[in-house]
Hints:
Blueprint lengths: L5 H17 L18 H11 L9 H16 L4 E8 L5 E12 L7 E7 L10 H20 L8 E6 L2 H4 L1 H9 L6 E9 L3 E9 L5 H10 L8 H9 L5 H9 L3 E8 L16 H18 L13 E6 L3 E6 L3 H21 L5 H32 L14 H22 L5 H4 L1 H17 L8 H15 L5 H26 L4 H14 L1 H4 L5 H21 L9 E3 L2 E5 L4 E6 L6 H4 L10 H4 L12 E4 L9 E10 L2 E9 L6 E6 L6 E4 L2 E2 L2 H5 L5 E6 L6 E7 L5 E9 L17 E3 L7 E10 L2
Parallel strand pairs: 2-19, 3-4, 3-5, 5-7, 10-22, 11-23
Antiparallel strand pairs: 1-2, 2-4, 6-7, 8-9, 11-12, 12-13, 14-15, 15-20, 16-19, 16-21, 17-18, 17-20, 21-23
Helix pairs in contact: 1-17, 2-4, 4-10, 6-9, 7-10, 11-15, 11-16, 12-13, 12-15, 12-18, 13-17, 13-18, 13-20, 16-17, 17-18
Amino acid sequence: MKKTPTVLTLLLIILAIYWSFRVLLPQYTAGETIDETQFSTDRALVHVKEMSKEPHGVGFPAHTTVRNYIADQLQLLGLETTIQEGYTAGDWGNLSKAENVLARIKGTEPGKALLLLSHYDSNPHSSLGASDAASGVATILEGVRAFLKNNTTPKNDIIIVISDAEELGLNGASLFVNKYEWLKDVGLVLNFEARGSGGPSYMLMETNRGNSKLISEFIAANPAYPVANSLAYSIYKMLPNDTDLTVFREDADIDGFNFAFIDDHFDYHTQIDNYERLDRNTLAHQGSYLMPLLTHFSNADLTNLKSMDDSVYFNVPFFKMVSYPFSWITPMLIIAIVVFIVLLILGFKKKVLNGKDILKGCIPVLFTLIINGAVGYFSWQFLKWLYPAYQDILHGFTYNGHAYIFAFTLFSLATCFYAYYRFRVVKTANLLVAPFIIWIIICGLVATYLKGASFFIVPLYSFLVAFYVHINQKNPEPFLLLFLGIPALFIFAPFVQMFPIGLGLKMMVATTIFTTLIFFLLLPLVSKYRKKGALAFLSFLLFAGFMVSAHMDSSFTKDRPKPTSLLYVLNTDENTAMWATYERKLSDWTAQYIIDKLAVPPAVNKTISSKYGTDFTYTYKAPLKDIPKPTIEVQKDTIKNNVRSISVCITPNRDINRLEVFTNEIDILKATVNGIELNEYFLKNRNGGRLITNYISDKNYTDITLEISPETELELTFYEASNDLLENDLFSIPARREDQIPMPFVLNDAIVTVQKINFDQ
């Protein structure tokens, strides 16, 4: 009887998993000599370093410095540079003055232009923006430099747009799309973004129609390290996350490609999004996309990219990108089902299969799915209970998040090995029936509801071959079974970590379920292992080891700082003041001011806006300080044609960063702020009564005109905020320790004044 070489095949499985990740990224070598006609990561890093020295959100001093640096670099390349200025409010009710940096390379032929896009503003108020998105700007600057060094003139014009105020609501992109004459020439957009500081850069398309021509052209451009799949594309279309490219698609029906990396998500929008933490391999990956796509699309027909058809696509080692049309989905599903039925008949005819053992084979499948699914689903709640400070990492991805992914992957494997150890007496062919049924149900569901994931069926064909082998052979060749399992590893292994990295550890259930489903596809080989009990014990031991490792790294350090927050809120109407925080587990720095954890006034939690709808957690009384409040003038209050029109001008009397205006819950017929009419859909779906957030530079005033029903009582609440709490002479707030940073996604380190005006009927 042939023994299955357990150790060797396990090592080869581990090697295949490693390779599925290894081929996603190029490997950066510091100081490597790169020809001037090629993209150099080192040269791109010079730009990143220069642009990420200080926070440079809209209204911050370094914002102008970074903009001027970009314009200077484009001019050094011999390009004429234009600064486009203007106010926009986008679709999010965030008003700002955007200042886009524009340049253009002329092509030899008339036709549509290729547009290169990234944004230069960092997120307010503390982010250094090295990854988001100095990395994107640097990729374009270095890519264009290398392209021009080749001394070849493209057929198509190449437009460069380094947009502003992306972090505030895609304002710069909106300004270009809706106000600049070059927009009519654009045929395709390549946008470079980041939502972390490392990992592979994922390609995501934006189109109002089908993707088949876009994906075929992308494959024809032949980037060396494509990381893309139609599942991510389908999910991306359903999520509310937008980029500058979204404006081009929605407002101008222009297609494009996003290239964004999401690993090390904990750095996103924080003070530690710095030059040192940007993954060099990741920046090299962005360059590996830009150069072949720039060459290809600067000479391609950009008038013929629209399509009504969609394609399924995915990346896989050795083959790079694989795609096929949606029209194949149903036939592939039917063929798999028919082949399975034929193999069932053959198995029963050969008396290899029997109903009793097939039913027994359902038990470990259900057991592993239920146990691993439940553990994955409740893991994040458990971790937050065990480590309360995790609640203050609003990204939902902790600094030791990768250790948790490894740990729960190993827990899932331990459960699977144990379950099949208990049913080791059942013949393998019978054990394969239930996993196939689970997988074919999944493939049927995605074929109906999530067609982009229909490539899930591809490894199922290898599984059917292995099923056939087990029906016809008592002792199949283990290396053949390993070979048949490799498609599952190559295609699905990256998904085990992609979901919790991109969506936070609350999606750990995706890790545990994907691990279980991959185990099912490897069952033709794994079921032959004699030491499944020992492998279960080893996996559980490794799970415990990674949990201990994660625990050892659960405290905060200089490299893993705790997010903290503190605000001073002055109610000028009531002449009261309070300290406020968003922290759930108070740091010692914050606890100096939040001495007793008092209840948060409901009115406050319903107003000041934040990315995730985060509310104040604690407040405490604060001393009154002489903070100048804004001058609010009612310039008009008239009724005409049964419409009441009210105009208010708010002028700051101190240096502020933003003004937020809220109303009571009323219907607003029309709203204009600084001459910009607010989106009608936004007015009808305002969150908590927020009317506008104006990001202010140079003490600019804010003019608001509202049209409402004459029978309506209007209440306006004004929140004026400056991010200078730690520098303001009226306060003596000590600096944070090295193991603490400002909490992202919320108003922070701020002095806030609150003021109300009521307008009766």
